[in-house]
Amino acid sequence: MSLLVFYVVVLTLGILSMGFQMLGSRLLSPHFGSSIDVWACLISTFLAAFSAGSMAGGTISNLDPVQRRKSQLVCAAVSVLTLAVTALWGRALLAQIEVAFTSVLVGVLVSCVALFLLPVTALSTFGPQCVQFLAQRGVAPGKASGLVYGVSTLGNIAGVMLTTFVLIPNFRVSSLLYGWLVVAVVTLAALLRFLRSPSSP
Question: Could you read off the pLDDT of 133-145 as tens digits, one per residue?
Protein backbone atom coordinates (compact mmCIF):
# COMPACT_ATOMS: atom_id res chain seq x y z
CA MET A 1 0.00 0.00 0.00
CA SER A 2 2.81 2.43 0.87
CA LEU A 3 4.43 1.90 -2.53
CA LEU A 4 1.11 2.64 -4.23
CA VAL A 5 0.98 5.96 -2.38
CA PHE A 6 4.60 6.58 -3.39
CA TYR A 7 3.71 6.12 -7.07
CA VAL A 8 0.73 8.46 -6.66
CA VAL A 9 3.13 11.08 -5.27
CA VAL A 10 5.49 10.59 -8.24
CA LEU A 11 2.52 10.86 -10.62
CA THR A 12 1.42 14.07 -8.92
CA LEU A 13 4.89 15.57 -9.30
CA GLY A 14 4.64 14.90 -13.02
CA ILE A 15 1.23 16.57 -13.15
CA LEU A 16 2.57 19.59 -11.27
CA SER A 17 5.53 20.05 -13.61
CA MET A 18 3.82 19.95 -17.01
CA GLY A 19 0.57 21.43 -15.79
CA PHE A 20 2.63 24.36 -14.58
CA GLN A 21 3.97 24.79 -18.12
CA MET A 22 0.44 25.14 -19.48
CA LEU A 23 -0.40 27.66 -16.75
CA GLY A 24 2.81 29.47 -17.61
CA SER A 25 1.69 29.86 -21.20
CA ARG A 26 -1.53 31.50 -20.00
CA LEU A 27 0.42 33.87 -17.76
CA LEU A 28 2.70 34.93 -20.60
CA SER A 29 0.01 35.28 -23.24
CA PRO A 30 -1.50 38.68 -22.24
CA HIS A 31 1.96 40.25 -22.21
CA PHE A 32 3.85 38.51 -25.02
CA GLY A 33 1.26 36.56 -27.00
CA SER A 34 1.35 32.84 -27.72
CA SER A 35 3.53 32.68 -30.82
CA ILE A 36 5.94 29.86 -31.59
CA ASP A 37 8.77 32.05 -30.23
CA VAL A 38 7.04 32.29 -26.84
CA TRP A 39 6.48 28.54 -26.76
CA ALA A 40 10.10 27.88 -27.75
CA CYS A 41 11.33 29.97 -24.81
CA LEU A 42 8.86 28.38 -22.41
CA ILE A 43 9.61 24.80 -23.43
CA SER A 44 13.38 25.42 -23.42
CA THR A 45 13.18 26.88 -19.92
CA PHE A 46 11.33 23.84 -18.62
CA LEU A 47 13.74 21.44 -20.34
CA ALA A 48 16.70 23.32 -18.86
CA ALA A 49 15.05 23.08 -15.44
CA PHE A 50 14.41 19.34 -15.85
CA SER A 51 18.06 18.83 -16.83
CA ALA A 52 19.55 20.94 -14.03
CA GLY A 53 17.19 19.47 -11.46
CA SER A 54 17.95 15.90 -12.47
CA MET A 55 21.71 16.48 -12.22
CA ALA A 56 21.37 18.24 -8.87
CA GLY A 57 19.08 15.48 -7.61
CA GLY A 58 21.62 12.85 -8.58
CA THR A 59 24.24 14.68 -6.56
CA ILE A 60 21.91 15.01 -3.58
CA SER A 61 21.19 11.27 -3.71
CA ASN A 62 24.87 10.53 -3.02
CA LEU A 63 25.25 12.83 -0.02
CA ASP A 64 25.51 11.48 3.51
CA PRO A 65 22.10 11.13 5.20
CA VAL A 66 22.28 14.39 7.20
CA GLN A 67 23.35 16.53 4.24
CA ARG A 68 20.87 14.76 1.99
CA ARG A 69 17.97 15.58 4.31
CA LYS A 70 19.04 19.21 4.55
CA SER A 71 19.27 19.43 0.77
CA GLN A 72 15.83 17.86 0.40
CA LEU A 73 14.36 20.46 2.75
CA VAL A 74 16.07 23.26 0.83
CA CYS A 75 14.75 21.98 -2.51
CA ALA A 76 11.23 21.59 -1.13
CA ALA A 77 11.36 25.09 0.37
CA VAL A 78 12.65 26.60 -2.89
CA SER A 79 9.86 24.85 -4.80
CA VAL A 80 7.15 26.16 -2.52
CA LEU A 81 8.52 29.69 -2.14
CA THR A 82 9.11 30.23 -5.85
CA LEU A 83 5.70 28.81 -6.72
CA ALA A 84 4.26 31.25 -4.18
CA VAL A 85 6.10 34.14 -5.86
CA THR A 86 4.63 33.15 -9.23
CA ALA A 87 1.13 32.76 -7.78
CA LEU A 88 1.16 35.99 -5.78
CA TRP A 89 3.24 38.36 -7.88
CA GLY A 90 3.63 36.69 -11.28
CA ARG A 91 1.39 39.09 -13.19
CA ALA A 92 2.97 42.14 -11.55
CA LEU A 93 6.47 40.91 -12.43
CA LEU A 94 5.44 40.21 -16.02
CA ALA A 95 4.02 43.72 -16.35
CA GLN A 96 7.33 45.21 -15.21
CA ILE A 97 9.39 42.95 -17.47
CA GLU A 98 7.19 43.78 -20.47
CA VAL A 99 7.92 47.48 -20.00
CA ALA A 100 11.60 47.03 -19.18
CA PHE A 101 12.59 45.22 -22.40
CA THR A 102 11.93 46.50 -25.90
CA SER A 103 12.74 43.10 -27.39
CA VAL A 104 9.83 40.69 -26.99
CA LEU A 105 12.18 37.70 -27.21
CA VAL A 106 14.40 39.00 -24.40
CA GLY A 107 11.35 39.84 -22.33
CA VAL A 108 9.96 36.33 -22.73
CA LEU A 109 13.29 34.72 -21.84
CA VAL A 110 13.67 36.87 -18.73
CA SER A 111 10.08 36.14 -17.73
CA CYS A 112 10.49 32.39 -18.14
CA VAL A 113 13.71 32.32 -16.13
CA ALA A 114 12.30 34.58 -13.41
CA LEU A 115 9.01 32.73 -12.92
CA PHE A 116 9.54 29.11 -13.94
CA LEU A 117 13.19 28.04 -13.83
CA LEU A 118 13.68 27.76 -10.07
CA PRO A 119 10.43 26.01 -9.07
CA VAL A 120 10.71 23.43 -11.84
CA THR A 121 14.42 22.85 -11.17
CA ALA A 122 13.76 22.32 -7.47
CA LEU A 123 10.87 19.92 -8.16
CA SER A 124 13.00 17.99 -10.65
CA THR A 125 15.68 17.25 -8.05
CA PHE A 126 13.35 14.65 -6.52
CA GLY A 127 13.27 12.39 -9.59
CA PRO A 128 16.69 10.77 -9.02
CA GLN A 129 15.97 10.56 -5.30
CA CYS A 130 12.78 8.63 -6.01
CA VAL A 131 14.84 6.23 -8.13
CA GLN A 132 17.23 5.77 -5.23
CA PHE A 133 14.30 5.22 -2.86
CA LEU A 134 13.19 2.21 -4.90
CA ALA A 135 16.73 0.93 -5.50
CA GLN A 136 17.38 0.90 -1.74
CA ARG A 137 14.32 -1.31 -1.35
CA GLY A 138 15.59 -4.02 -3.64
CA VAL A 139 14.33 -2.84 -7.02
CA ALA A 140 17.01 -3.16 -9.70
CA PRO A 141 18.38 0.33 -10.56
CA GLY A 142 17.36 0.13 -14.22
CA LYS A 143 13.86 -1.00 -13.33
CA ALA A 144 13.62 1.66 -10.60
CA SER A 145 14.60 4.37 -13.08
CA GLY A 146 12.11 3.09 -15.64
CA LEU A 147 9.29 2.96 -13.09
CA VAL A 148 9.89 6.44 -11.69
CA TYR A 149 10.33 8.21 -14.99
CA GLY A 150 7.56 6.17 -16.63
CA VAL A 151 5.07 7.08 -13.91
CA SER A 152 6.30 10.68 -13.89
CA THR A 153 5.84 10.94 -17.66
CA LEU A 154 2.29 9.63 -17.33
CA GLY A 155 1.82 12.45 -14.83
CA ASN A 156 3.25 14.89 -17.37
CA ILE A 157 0.67 13.76 -19.92
CA ALA A 158 -2.14 13.97 -17.38
CA GLY A 159 -0.94 17.42 -16.32
CA VAL A 160 -1.04 18.74 -19.89
CA MET A 161 -4.44 17.25 -20.71
CA LEU A 162 -6.13 17.99 -17.40
CA THR A 163 -4.84 21.56 -17.21
CA THR A 164 -5.57 22.39 -20.84
CA PHE A 165 -8.99 20.81 -21.29
CA VAL A 166 -10.51 20.82 -17.80
CA LEU A 167 -8.91 23.32 -15.44
CA ILE A 168 -8.05 26.35 -17.59
CA PRO A 169 -11.50 26.54 -19.27
CA ASN A 170 -13.27 26.42 -15.90
CA PHE A 171 -11.05 28.31 -13.45
CA ARG A 172 -9.05 31.51 -13.37
CA VAL A 173 -5.31 31.06 -13.83
CA SER A 174 -4.65 32.89 -10.55
CA SER A 175 -6.87 30.42 -8.69
CA LEU A 176 -5.15 27.48 -10.37
CA LEU A 177 -1.74 28.79 -9.34
CA TYR A 178 -2.89 28.90 -5.73
CA GLY A 179 -4.14 25.35 -6.15
CA TRP A 180 -0.77 24.31 -7.59
CA LEU A 181 0.90 25.79 -4.52
CA VAL A 182 -1.31 23.85 -2.10
CA VAL A 183 -0.87 20.57 -4.00
CA ALA A 184 2.91 21.12 -4.12
CA VAL A 185 3.06 21.59 -0.34
CA VAL A 186 1.07 18.40 0.33
CA THR A 187 2.94 16.35 -2.28
CA LEU A 188 6.39 17.44 -1.16
CA ALA A 189 5.54 16.83 2.50
CA ALA A 190 4.48 13.27 1.63
CA LEU A 191 7.56 12.72 -0.53
CA LEU A 192 9.94 13.96 2.17
CA ARG A 193 8.35 11.50 4.56
CA PHE A 194 8.93 8.65 2.11
CA LEU A 195 12.54 9.65 1.45
CA ARG A 196 13.30 9.73 5.17
CA SER A 197 11.81 6.33 5.90
CA PRO A 198 14.12 3.37 6.63
CA SER A 199 15.66 1.86 3.54
CA SER A 200 14.88 -1.76 4.38
CA PRO A 201 12.14 -3.36 2.27
Answer: 999 999 999 999 9
